[in-house]
Amino acid sequence: MKKWMLAVLAGLLLWNAALTYFIFNDPKQPRENSGSEPESVVVDYSNDLSEMAEDVRSSIVTVETWTSGIRHITSGIVYARDDSGVYVLTCDQSGYDEEGVRVIFDSSASVEAEYVAGDEDTGVCLLRVNPSFEVSLIRTASSSLVRQGEYAAVLGGRSPLSQSAPMSYGIVSRPSQRRIFAGSSWFATTIDFDGNVTGEMMGGPVLNIGGQMIGMMITRSYGGDRMGSAICSNELKILYDEMKENREVTRGALCVTVRSVSSMRAYEKSERNIKLDVTSGVMVTYIADNSEALNVLKEGDILMSMDTVQLSDESVLMQELYEHQPGDEVHFSILRNNETMEVSVILQ
Prior knowledge:
By secondary structure, the chain is α+β, with helices and mostly antiparallel strands. It has helices at residues 2-24, 39-56, 233-246, 266-271, 314-322, and strands at 60-67, 70-82, 85-91, 101-104, 110-118, 124-129, 151-155, 167-180, 187-194, 205-207, 213-219, 227-232, 256-260, 282-287, 302-306, 309-310, 329-336, 339-346.
């Protein structure tokens, strides 16, 4: 019996030694860093970004204008086309209708552009060109699906002088941020992007990793603030439709910021005393001091419907406001302290 136990013990020791040898000498196992970087990881990661940039590069243009003898360079996006031409979205940072504007494609082909319309509140404007060659339209994604912390890239048009095309990379810091610009009463829907962006990249697209546009750059960071802001793709679509069809942008401003109830977590609803079965509507989070709604609505109110339209989320409210004019009176059905109320507000 004793000899049998010793034999078993010896066998176990041999098995343990053999197993240890194979584990530490398996070429598939990761080894300690020998000082060289893991090239395959870096190359694969770089190639992903390079391929994404190459895929969208033909949809990004340079916009060149001259105002009082001063040359202005921004970027633009090849957004749509119809029988009358190709439409380019960009940001209106100079007087495009003073001395003309040209759109320079990635191939360096230059085409004279027509200024269609601009929006003073957001700085977005629409140009039309008639190139003699085929163009590629930018692919878009719904900005309502963008989440904080997602990686994103900003691409600018190719410089006519250096022939280089800028690109920046970072994370989405604040998706669906409500931003009001100087001299405006409209709270635009923006994405705050953490990345270095130059003036020439204004009007360029903010892209997700799949190469789909989720916004368009309209401001750049100043001082120590590295954040730039982009108009969300969902609002950009409405702006495009307004400018193309009406050659101007009109809308009624409620002068409040809201949040979709459908995006709220259970603990948030609990802390705000919102019933868990309330899954639609938009909650008022801020009311501007100059708002006509200041003495009508309260922070925490949930707007359930506007006139006869159910407000399932923020995008529906935004669309409805674009359908109205300043001075229009609109009627809301709201939840306040879980009780239904009817109120009216004059839009600004």
